[in-house]
Amino acid sequence: MSKQLDARSAASGAYLDHAASSALRPEAIAAMTDAFGLVGNAASVHAHGRAARRALEESRESVADRLGALPSEVVFTAGGTESDNLGLKGLYWARRAQRPSRDVVMTSAVEHHAVLDVVDWLVKSQGAQAVTLPVDRSGAVRPDALAAALAQWGERVALVSVMWGNNEVGTINPVAELAELANAADVPLHVDACQAVGQIPVGLAESGAAALSVAAHKFGGPVGAGALVLSRRHDAVALLHGGGHERGLRSGTSDLVAIRGMAAALDAATEDLAGSAARLARLRGRLAEGVLRLAPDALLNGAPLGAGRLPGNAHFSFPGCEGDSLLMLLDAAGVACSTGSACTAGVASASHVLLAMGVQQEVARASLRFSFGWNSAEEEVDLALRALPDAIARARAARPDSVPV
Fold first, then answer.
1. Residues 118-172: pLDDT tens digits?
2. Apex CA 85: angle with CA 79 and CA 89, to 5°?
3. Contact (Cβ atoms closer than 8 angstroms) between residue 299 and residue 363
4. Which SUPFAM superfamilies does this chain map to (predicted)?
5. Rounded CA separation 225/68 (Å)
6. Which of 64, 80, 136, 255 would be a feasible disulfide site paired with 69, CB 3.0-4.6 Å?
7. What is the DSSP string of 169-217?
8. CA-based Rg of the chain, rounded to a whole angstrom?
């Protein structure tokens, strides 16, 4: 009974944390339900195996088409973190095998920890040299910064990794320009595109990137499904060894149910991308206007609302509040949002993204991310705006240094 009550309560609230995970799309549920009826391993040669294989390859072709790639360039994984690990480690090992002097890995300080922690591991365990690319006040990597770093480190550069759209503040990087610079220097560019797919156009060939990391649950697919879209122009070394599945880069029996759900969700997410983005931007704009009206001292972090920002992202700092307190007060009012990446939730520290952007620590700790998805509604914006004034007042009063009025 309590689980049913919790489910009804959650359904009646405002879920504004799609950047952490979005709800399963009906199309994904239908595709997964059908796939549950398939019996057979896609690697088997009998009729059941061939049927499973056909379903797998149809999904691969669909994902490739939606992401501007060849089917042979889609390597299915268990999600964004595995894709980032395979992309960075695999490309790094392949490059060093070609030339041992290639030991430099470049990335920015605002990346997801699925990238930052991999780079840290490569430094500590594989002898890599990490080079951090600076970001501007909006959190973007500027092409001139990459050009300068590539010129400084020359042929020692093994790879560059930069996210397409930031998971916290939503800032979009100029991926095509960065890829052009990297390609001119004969350096592969890995792009964490987990937040961008389903919100803005993302394509491997058009961008010029060497590899893209994708996570299905960000655009209405199932948790536990993702892909590394790896250009045929580049080699990578596998993390998992066994049966040689997925172009020899990801051994293991394919999770056909999850993959079918991912492909269906991606089809739905990109069918009318412009219309979907416009709808998200309208909802985000209503929220931002209301927040700044109710809390005039609130600060919008990241790029301005427009083409330089993911349409479903709004990130604010509320001076005088602790972000964690504000989060819990809003949650009690039925509004789900986030203080940053869900992968670092529960860690009482200022966002590394905001600090890298030059935001002062106290302001960074007073921040919340609101993110919209495919089933977000105006009523959720209304609920959030109704709950916000009281939550801000109580969060400020709860600070140890607050002074009673």
1. 999 999 999 999 999 999 999 999 999 999 999 999 999 999 999 999 999 999 9
2. 155
3. yes
4. PLP-dependent transferases (SSF53383)
5. 19
6. 64
7. T-BBP-HHHHHHHHHHTT--EEEE-TTTBTTB---HHHHT-SEEEEEGG
8. 22
3-class secondary-structure state, position 5: helix
Query: In Å, what is the CA distance from 312 to each residue of 287, 329, 381, 384, 387?
Result: 11, 22, 12, 15, 20
Coil/strand/helix, residue 182:
helix
CA distance 289 to 338: 19
Judge contact between 238 and 82, C-beta under 8 A. Answer: no
Q: What angle is formed at CA 224 by the lines to CA 130 and CA 369, rounded to 5 degrees?
A: 65
Q: Report the catalytic residues.
A: 343
What value, to the nearest 5°, has the Cα angle with vertex 203 and ends 133 and 169? Answer: 45
CB atoms within 10 A of CB 107: 23
Measured in whole angstroms, how far is the alpha carbon of residue 387 from the centre of its chain? 28
Only one residue has tokens 């993302």, namely 202
Which ranges of 185-272 does DSSP label H, i.e. alpha helix? 204-207, 256-271
Say if CB 357 and CB 139 are below 8 A apart.
Answer: yes
292-328 pLDDT per residue, tens: 999 999 999 999 999 999 999 999 999 999 999 999 9
Pairwise CA distance, residues 187 & 256, whole Å: 34
Please provide the average confidence, as pLDDT, over all residues in the chain: 93
Question: Does an H or E element contain 115, and which?
Answer: helix 113-126
Q: What is the CB-side half-sphere exposure of residue 89 using CA atoms within 13 A?
A: 21
Locate 267 and state its tokens. 């089809």
Alpha-carbon gap, residue 225 to 217, rounded angstroms: 7
Q: What one-letter code names the amino acid at 31? A: A
Domains within the chain, CATH numbers bracketed: 26-270 (3.40.640.10), 273-397 (3.90.1150.10)
Under DSSP, is residue 112 helix (H, G, I), strand (E, B) or coil? coil
Q: How many helices (H) and strands (E) does the chain have?
A: 14, 12
User: Rounded to whole angstroms, how far apart are CA atoms 322 and 306?
Assistant: 28
**Other beta carbons within 10 Å of 75:** 25
Which tokens is 143 given? 């092409």
Handedness of CA 81, 83, 86, 89 (dihedral sign): negative
Tell me the two tokens of residue 110: 């605002």
Residue pLDDT, tens place only, 6-31: 433 445 799 999 999 999 999 999 99
